[in-house]
Amino acid sequence: MKKQVKSNVSWVGKVDWELLKFHGDEYSTNKGSSYNSYLIQEEKTVLIDTVWAPFAEEYVENLSKEIDLNKIDYIIANHGEVDHSGGLPALMKRIPETPIYCTANAVNSLKGQYHQDWNFNVVKTGDKIDIGNGKELIFVEMTMLHWPDSMATYLTQDNILFSNDAFGQHLATERLFNDLVDQCELFEECIKYFANILTPFNPILRNKLDEVIALNLPIDIIATGHGVIWRDNPMQIVEKYLEWANDYQENQITIIYDTMWNGTKVLAEKIAEGIVSTDSDVNVKLFNLPKSDENDIITEVFKSKAVIIGSPTVGNSILHSVAGFVQLMKSMRFKNKKAAAFGCYGWSGEAVKVLNDLMKDAGFEVIDEGLRNQWNPEEKSIEEAIKFGEKIAKI
Prior knowledge:
single chain, Metallo-beta-lactamase, Chain A, Rossmann fold, seven-stranded mixed beta sheet, 23% strand
């Protein structure tokens, strides 16, 4: 269980290979995850974060084999969310008086979840704990990254930033460090994590990243709450966050649709054909919404400069799958992205107008009145769909 991170710092967490969904069913974790907990053994012994509640008893039992639990001097709760704090109730039954250091918001969070009045000690940015051998823990509030209670903890001399959710990813691996895993897989999970969880907080994130950098702390390791630990050029993920937080986009157009009898699907494919025939450099991606992973699509929207979204008209409106996805995009608070709509209809044909209104409300710049096609596409309407794609490519 116990794995050395550096000097007297060890990983004592849990790798969850079977995890497929997170935050209820809101986030897909197709590569599993880990719940990273850390043990520092200097003159004082410090435990940083725990694991998700289903693994609490296993965690405490394993931890007790590594160390006498009564020798733990301090517990640091960087974040109150149950995937990091879920081991606390089982642990505190064994060592009920051990002080827990966290933000004021984390006290509210932990009390609200577990209804226990543990020995809480509130800290704020710049507060320190001396743990002996010339080393200190310095606390940095990370408000809204991604909860109001979040913070990071920095260990001097070893220059380790325990960052909790910031800079992490959902990736199950027995290889503890970033340089030991597949780099493509790693960064795919990093950008997915950022796009789906941190994007709504971009303005706050930009300010916080500037604040952390201004502290001018040497960082040799970033020990995250999920996934791998960054030891090889750890600041590379901070640089990525700075890039992603700046209303990120690539030269990509993403087409998203649902269809009833394949008419809207045909339009989607022909729109894509028109785009690439006009701009061979643009990356076009096409998603049939119900047959795709919504979190993977959100990641592609995050990377896109424009989103083309389609639905047939049903009940004078759009399919509920598309409506729900637009609401999901709205919650991401994307900025500086363009949009257009398309769809087939048989009778009244309101879907495109409904989509235009919804995309405007979601913060997208609607760049065209949209493409409406009655009944199944035939030769003329196929040509119109191609021309619509050509038009989109030029905007």
